[in-house]
Design a protein that fits this description.
Distance between the termini: 27 Å
Number of strands: 13
Number of domains: 2
Helix content: 25-40%
Structural class: alpha/beta
CATH class of the largest domain: Alpha Beta
Number of helices: 6
Largest sheet: 7 strands, parallel
Order of helices and strands: EEHEEEEEHEHEEHEEHEH
CATH superfamily of the largest domain: SPOUT methyltransferase, trefoil knot domain
Strand content: 15-25%
Low-confidence stretches: none
Mean pLDDT: 95
């Protein structure tokens, strides 16, 4: 039987016994229906897994931590145009499983999703839960960095100067760059449009910021497919897939 992995926000280092917060305790006891004596693994984003034994009342007995050696050596940041509902969830879930380092949601000209105030707070909380679940499933011990949505212009304006080995890409069906023609990068920053794609003006704005126009293949991909496809191709070429 597979040992459950559960993300918590409580400190774990140096602890021998811990009373879980209400959320994780409910998940273990009521959702997974684990009984006292069950084995599990806890993680909180510090790069370690903490084997534990479940006791009564949400108390766990912690064992010495175990290093998790599956961090992606190729740092990939994805700037994703906001898309609706399950499409954004799918991008977050699959790119996290593949090893994404950071995700920046973008408000672009053709975005149909508008977020602000309490609605933004709820959506950010939901997205964080998607990331946690994807890390639990995939064995990752560190969550990708998730930023609040920004406009494309503001985000580009805040980007630091690129490192010599950083590859900047903007997905464009008419692009003149292919991954196989690029030198092996130390990191990648990629921009993907929403359901309606990026406007030509937005692609030009990215190009002026040093982004190469990437044609990922001969077929047009949906926005929720493009990010996972890009990560898969890049990690097969230069990373730890394949």
């Amino acid at each position: 039987m597979r040992i459950p992995r559960v993300h918590i926000t409580q400190p774990l280092a140096g602890q021998q016994q811990l009373t879980l917060d209400a959320g994780p305790a409910h998940h273990l006891l009521k959702v997974l229906r684990l009984r006292p004596g069950a084995q599990l693994r806890l993680f909180n984003g510090d790069g370690l897994d903490y084997p534990a034994t479940l006791g009564g009342g949400g108390v766990v007995e912690l064992q010495p931590p175990v290093a998790v050696d599956n961090r992606c050596a190729l740092s990939i940041t994805l700037a994703q145009g906001l898309c609706r509902g399950e499409r954004m969830d799918l991008v977050l879930q699959k790119t996290t499983e593949l090893g994404l380092a950071a995700l920046q949601p973008l408000q672009t000209q053709r975005c149909e999703l508008k977020l602000g105030g309490e609605r933004l707070d709820r959506r950010m909380g939901h997205w964080q839960q998607v990331l946690r679940s994807a890390c639990e499933q995939s064995g990752r011990a560190e969550l990708p960095e998730l930023s609040e949505p920004a406009t494309l212009a503001n985000w580009l304006g805040q980007l630091p100067a690129p490192a010599d080995d950083e590859l900047r890409l903007v997905l464009d069906p008419e692009g003149d760059t292919r991954l196989r023609d690029c030198a092996a990068p130390g990191s990648i920053v990629a921009v993907i449009g929403p359901e309606g794609g990026l406007s030509e003006a937005e692609i030009d704005l990215c190009a002026r910021a040093g982004f190469r126009r990437l044609q990922l293949g001969p077929r047009v991909l949906r926005t929720e497919t493009a990010g996972p496809a890009l990560l898969s191709a890049a990690l097969a070429l230069w990373g730890d897939l394949g």
